[in-house]
Design a protein that fits this description.
Chain lengths: 467, 205
């Protein structure tokens, strides 16, 4: 019997334990940022340990960096201290760091792929749950906590149990105006927040094959929202074409040799999955979340759901609580709901393709007077490329803010936050209570819907603003 | 990590599903570089509400949280575990948990007890009936008990995690005992490294 991609990755990295020992998984690349690492480095210092493989460890500042220009000093002393701690720790332990303002700095899940240090067949971890993003490259990538960060720094391994596998097969062709984010939200609608628990998801089918690497990253990014620690996409020519010429990969014949190896990181035809879910492309439309978890998804053309439609008591209570928190009335068409803030950014949707999509909608329009709209590129490289393409000018002319890279309003650790009861259309990944600022009300949407919503001042699809 | 064998105390029911780690500890708390003092931030957005269960006098001092399905999903922040423990919780009982939260808990000695939804709801009812009742979580026998209500259920724990809890073993020390196996693996690995990719200032070569 053949192997799934997950099993191939597992087998290539496992250091089996003897009786009474855990299996260890060897980690090829450890990405580090300022928020989940300071206590881990402290732990190393206390126990007089070193970083075992600085050449497999890469750090960037992203979670709490301000998105103002470098000339604006960081006013929050606690944020400043955390960023300084990262610089001190990386210097002390010999880890390469991209600090605020560095040409390679950006959101950790944007820079790994764009620098070509994320490669097929690798194991990749980071103290951040959206590490699942890197699975788009046929690598096993998952988020870990701070104790595990310390464990990887010290040993370059993690005690692990093998996960179950789930094939998520997306059949058919996407309709025009439907983006990778809508695919991710369709999967959330189907699996809910618990459907992927204990599993590694492999996204397959025509829809995935047709997506760009940026689109595949968007889909893999939200695997954790369904409870799955990792998402995977098999390697194909799209993967290889994306990586060719990037700083982290070799060039010439050496690259082609690598590519030949990478082509093996696919599930065998006769491999068996523990579970399978099939989603038809014709059922994927522009989606939006209405509630306070990412499984609470409806069509943008739909209405706010009613507690009456819940399938059990638990769901009814959750719906009632979410409606109260979100300040919504059941039955209201989403397109009639006004917003205060539009956020285009985050590790889900801040890559060049996302910005191109949003700019194509924003071009020649004007942000509604009741709306503040922010565009936060995922990295300095994305920002530079967007500026070379003139996207910044399109956004600025339409009244959007064009900001410096970072996680920004996705989680509101920096000054980019919602105020209580402000409503956002956000291209990020989590609509949890208070996620974007205490009392803030988040609706997750695609970059196209976000841009159209900014212009209309209420939730809108790109077709409504087409000129 | 301190060994954990027996947890005795009182329970508090949390009547919500999908309590993600952003709710357990909001991101404003994540800027701190320390590992202690997070208890004050636990459920901080809900604790302003005087009716929130942790503010009710009968549950003051409870050390076992009985929660709904999918507790601890979302962000990988271990700060959620630090906050629960700093507040005084020693075990969490729920029908299901986020995978990363479960791992993080095992590293700190916070005991994760998974029971069926029906059993969790029964246990909540037993607690609500008399919040003073003694609850016992026995990590050695893998049992949850409320002796006063003649209520007892067994639960499952990964044997490795159970051993680590009972002995208070530190994961890193255990792994470093296998240094030779790791070095052997490294000698045969051809996975790419960052050597030569960036110069000392982090610029691409």
């Amino acid at each position: 019997m053949g192997k799934t991609l997950y099993e191939k990755l597992w087998d290539a990295h496992v250091i089996p334990g003897e009786a009474g020992q855990s299996s260890l998984l060897y980690i090829d690349l450890h990405l580090v940022h300022e928020v989940t690492s300071p206590q881990a480095f402290d732990g190393l210092r206390l126990s007089k340990r070193r970083v075992r493989r600085p050449d497999r460890t890469l750090a960037t500042a992203d979670h709490n960096v301000p998105t103002e220009p470098m000339s604006v000093a960081i006013t929050d002393p606690i944020s400043k201290r955390q960023l300084e701690a990262l610089e001190e720790n990386c210097a002390e332990f010999g880890v390469t760091l991209f600090p605020r303002g560095h040409e390679n700095q950006g959101i950790v899940h944007v820079i790994g792929p764009e620098l070509g240090v994320t490669q097929p067949g690798m194991t990749i971890v980071c103290g951040d749950s959206h590490t699942s993003t890197h699975g788009a490259f046929g690598s096993l990538a998952f988020g870990i906590g701070t104790s595990e960060v310390e464990h990887v720094l010290a040993t370059q391994t993690l005690p692990q149990q093998k996960a179950k596998t789930m094939a998520v097969t997306l059949k058919g062709q996407l309709s025009p105006g439907v983006s990778a984010k809508d695919v991710a939200l369709a999967i959330m609608k189907r699996l809910g927040t618990g459907g992927g628990l204990g599993h590694v998801l492999e996204y397959r089918g025509e829809v995935i094959r047709a997506l760009s690497m940026e689109g595949r990253m968007t889909v893999c990014n939200m695997s954790i929202e369904a409870g799955a620690r990792a998402g995977l996409v098999a390697v194909d020519e799209t993967t290889i074409d994306y990586l060719r010429g990037r700083p982290g990969v070799p060039s010439g014949s050496e690259f082609e040799e690598k590519a030949e190896l990478w082509r093996g990181f696919v599930s065998d035809d006769d491999a068996l999955f523990d579970a399978e879910v099939v989603i038809e492309a014709r059922d994927i439309v522009p989606f939006i979340t209405w509630g306070t978890n990412p499984g609470q998804v409806v069509a943008l053309d739909g209405v706010v759901p009613s507690p009456e439609d819940a399938r059990d008591d638990d769901q009814r209570e959750a719906t009632e609580r979410a409606l109260t928190y979100m300040g919504l009335v059941a039955g209201t068409p989403l397109r009639e709901v006004a917003v205060d803030v539009v956020f285009i950014g985050s590790c889900t949707n801040s890559r060049i393709e996302d910005l191109r999509l949003a700019a194509s909608v924003a071009r020649g329009g004007r942000v509604a007077s009741n709306v503040r709209a922010l565009v936060v590129p995922g990295s300095h490289r994305v920002k530079k490329q967007a500026e070379e393409e003139g996207l910044d000018q399109i956004f600025l002319a339409a009244g959007f803010e064009w900001r410096e890279p970072g996680c920004s309003m996705c989680l509101g650790m920096n000054p980019d936050q919602l105020k209580p009861e402000q409503r956002s259309a956000s291209t990020s990944n989590r609509n949890f209570e208070g996620r974007q600022g205490r009392g803030g009300r988040t609706h997750l949407v695609s970059p196209g819907v976000a841009a159209a919503t900014a212009l209309k001042g209420r939730f809108a699809s790109p077709t409504e603003v087409a000129r | 990590m301190k060994p954990v064998r027996l947890i005795e105390g009182r329970g508090v029911p949390l009547e919500r599903s999908d309590v993600d780690t952003d709710q357990i500890i909001p991101s404003e708390w994540l800027k701190r570089v320390e590992r202690t003092g997070f208890g004050r931030g636990l459920f901080s957005e809900w604790r302003d509400d005087q009716n929130f269960v942790l503010n009710q006098a009968e549950y003051a001092g409870a050390n076992i949280l009985v929660a709904g399905p999918r507790f601890g999903t979302g962000s990988s922040r271990e700060h959620a575990v630090w906050a629960l423990m700093d507040y005084g919780f020693e075990a969490i009982i729920a029908p299901s948990f986020g995978d990363i939260f479960r791992n993080n808990s095992s590293k700190q000695g916070l005991v994760i007890v998974e029971l069926s939804l029906d059993d969790v709801n029964e246990l909540k009812a037993v607690i609500v009936e008399d919040p003073r009742r003694l609850l016992i979580v026995d990590v050695e026998q893998l049992l949850v008990e409320v002796p006063d209500a003649l209520w007892r259920r067994s639960f499952v724990l990964d044997p490795m995690i159970q051993q680590r809890l009972l002995n208070g073993w530190d994961d890193i020390s255990l792994t470093l005992l296998r240094d030779d196996s790791i070095s052997d693996y490294e000698a045969h690995s051809n996975a790419p490294t960052l050597l030569g990719v960036f110069d000392d200032a982090g610029h691409s070569r």
